[in-house]
Amino acid sequence: MRLAAAFFVLCGLTAAQPARSVPRTAHQLYDALNALRLDPASVYQIKPEHRIELRRGDAKISLDQGEVIFFAPLDNEITGAVFSGRGHILALPRDTIEKQQMARFLDSPILDQDFASAYMRFTDTTSADLLHQLQTAGLKPESDSTAAARWEPVLSHLSATHSLRIFCGTLLATPRPYFYASLDGIATGPFDVVLDSMRAEPFVLGQARTTAGSTFYDVWASYKIPDAIPMAPDFRALHYAIDTSILPDHSLDASATVNFRALGAGNRFLVFALSRALNIESVTSADGQKLEYFQNEDMTPKQRSVRGNDYLFVVLPRPVPRDTEFSIRFHYRGNIIADAGNNVFFVGARESWYPHFGDSADFAAYDLTMRWPKKLRLVATGAKIDEHEEADFRVGHWRTEKPVSVAGFNLGEYASSSLSSTNYSIDVYANHQVEEQLAKRLANNVVPEIPNAGPARSTLGMNQALQPLPPNPAVALKQLGKDIDSSIRFYETFSGPFPFHNLSVSQIPGTFGQGWPGLLYISTYSFLSADVQRRAGLSSSGQEHFSELVPFHEVAHQWWGNVVGWSSYRDQWIDEALANYLALLFADMHKNPDHTLRVWLQRYRQRLVEKAANADEPAGEIGALALGSRLNSSKSPEAYEDLIYAKGAWVIHMLREMLRQPGTNPDARFNALLRTLVTKYAYRALSTQDLRREVEIVMTPSMDLEGGHSMEWFFEQWIQGAGIPHYRTEFTVHKSDSGSGYSVRGKLLQENVPPSFIARVPLYAAIPGTHPVLLGTVVAAGPETQFHFIASTQPHKLVIDPQMTLLCTTQ
Hints:
By secondary structure, this protein is α+β, with helices and mostly antiparallel strands.
């Protein structure tokens, strides 16, 4: 499972450049911005007869009655204001997917509510707009130090974040306007309104909420606005050289040198992902010049753990000319390795254990040097060049042979097993023990519910006096290696040659997996026998999940995610869905023959039509696949898992079924599609629109439901839409007028989806003593569609899509 980058980062970037008469260092300017407070001599009293409003994006913010206080200016620029009293906001999202999300959180597709206060920061024309309206209304500033003082707790809590945003705007070659408002809604409590032209989706409405001890950012709406000019990338990372020492206490002392090429935007800052658990010691240029940086400024370690972020901002002393290559060197320390007990280690911050620039579509070369206590074994991304001992440590060197978007490592007291194929080798690593928490559960024969593994069930009657041997994950090494080799060979028929010369498969505690380039993190549960899994509390479906899907889903990511990237959080579903569907096909054809593709698809369909875990509605109705990481929210903490994997696999299955044609190779079109994607989008981003265009190239005439050789209908409904259609029939059967066969007339009823929903629905005649016989296909368009077929034998009933080619429910 590949994790997406954080969707809404308040420590993002902004725009305008206030003129300065006195040069300041980066931190001096930040400190000056952070020290700004309200101007007690700039207080305005608004009465109901005055009309003060702001239009930002698709929101109209009205200040109806109350008090406005402006921030004190810095270099003649006002960058903020506050309001208390009675205000109103009206906002209507532009597209269907955002309206659906707004309605989900607010019970209405329109944001239309009063608010009692507002905290606003800006670098656009807000200051001028407000002052002009106030002056036009004949209002003059008043002095009120008491009113300004009442806002001090709010400013001290929020200003640091926005000071960094405003500061970053001074480093842009071209100003990018920014507006932020935190409104205290009467009905909803505090929520955010953002219009930031540096964001790929400039307009955002959302709210932070805490549920069951976890904090989520509920995005009510986020999208592009007309005439918004996308911000061109500033830099491209070309090469990472990372030198890491893992000390005896398992903390890291590391340095990283990242080489860049300037792309000509003229901006002077770079943003890196770096775990908040790692503290930067220094940032320097190639010639040793110290560079200014910002990393959770003014926070204590405790504050960082609670409300810090995993981002690092680095300031360049001057703009870098286009196509110029330069490097930045980092030195940092901290601990991202946890001991799960029994010498089983958990490597956290797997995407941010080094300063990582870019996202899943930014591929670069990596050179890793690792030092670690010699009693442990370590595996890492890339081809191993060397490994040797130095005193109490081992030192290894790895280098990538092809560009990768991320690099990782894993370590433990591993046993290993290896096998070689013609073009690649596989090394499997596992501990001789399980993590302490799991060991205690097994020793006590406790059966709690395991997250993401289905409902738990009691163990079979076991003689408590008999103490089974402690589980040993290393026992599974050879067989798991053989199974992974089989999966690679199977996937090569769909996705082309395996993209790496070596694949390291390593155990990690917990209930998840990840597929990094040439390196898999596989849950301990996948190394255990069915009996041990059962004793640990896994249901039969949970056992199948860890034994038949998890390892092979991560293998599929070697192509889908590690060769083909995704454009944004809205496109990540493609790689996850393809990886999961290919794992289902492998399980169907190479694992337990009783667990066919139909069984998995039925389970996924059931997950989609049932109420999601900790959610108030069925998973299939929560939102669209294109919402990606936004699916997880305070209303549905685990919806991403249900939608992306379950519905995503169904979407790929439906495409495959539509592309199938009679012949010796019915999957020829589907296979050609996947091969094209891997070749054409290797080491770059694949978007949903790209996928649609490639599907349209290989589509069959029967897929063209709306004409124009377009698959827009499919992508709008299944990727941009929510809901699972339900079908039933009403029909009559009569002897045909010709006397040959039977006339079947009726109507197909479609429910639970919008009236515009269309689909090809196959109808079969159920005849006693034989398999259902295909009558034909009905193109369902709207709530009711008429049909007429001639059957050679009188059907007793009609069966809707028994071959499971369409995600739907029936009766």
